[in-house]
Amino acid sequence: MDLDALQHRLHRTESELKLQQRELRSLKEELNEQKQVCERLRKEASENEETEERTKRSRKQKTKRRREQRTKRSREQRSKRSREQRTKRSREQRTKRSRKQRTKRSRKQRTKRSRKQRTKRSRKQRTKRSRKQRTKRRREQSMKRRREQRAIPRE
């Protein structure tokens, strides 16, 4: 091989080398760009995951809060109802008691009145009887006196 051919080959090899180096550089740049894209996508994915987790958590908390409020409300309603029932019961008992007492009082008063009336009647009857007996005795005595006076001959 002559010198010209060698130089020509060297030149061609050098230009091929330059071309390959340029290709290598562009491939490296492309690789870097793809790495950056991958990184950005990874970041976005992790951010999305975090956001999703936060949303999930907040939804859970909301549900929990709602459940607790419902429970609290129902508990309060139950206690209110029971309180109202107690109040109603005690009111009814009071009313019943007072009615009972009134009935008892009126019965007592009736009994007292009837006893008084009986006593009054019996007193009246006694008085009447004793008056009758007195009258009867007086009449009998006067009759006796008249008979005795008639029996005594007049002088």
Explain what the structure shows.
By secondary structure, this protein is mostly helical. The radius of gyration is 66 Å and the shape is rod-shaped. The chain starts with a helix and ends with a helix. 0% of the residues are buried.
What is the strand and helix layout of this fold?
Layout (H helix, E strand, L loop, with lengths): L2 H149 L4
Keywords:
155 residues
Oligomer: single chain
Q: Which of globular, elongated, flat, extended, rod-shaped describes the shape?
A: rod-shaped
Poorly predicted regions: none
Portion in helices:
over 70%
For the biggest sheet, the summary is: none
Radius of gyration: 66 Å
Structural class: mainly alpha
| Count of helix runs | 1
What is the string of helix and strand elements? H
- Extended strand count: 0
Could you give the distance between the termini? Answer: 226 Å
Overall mean confidence score, pLDDT: 93
Proportion in β-strands: under 5%
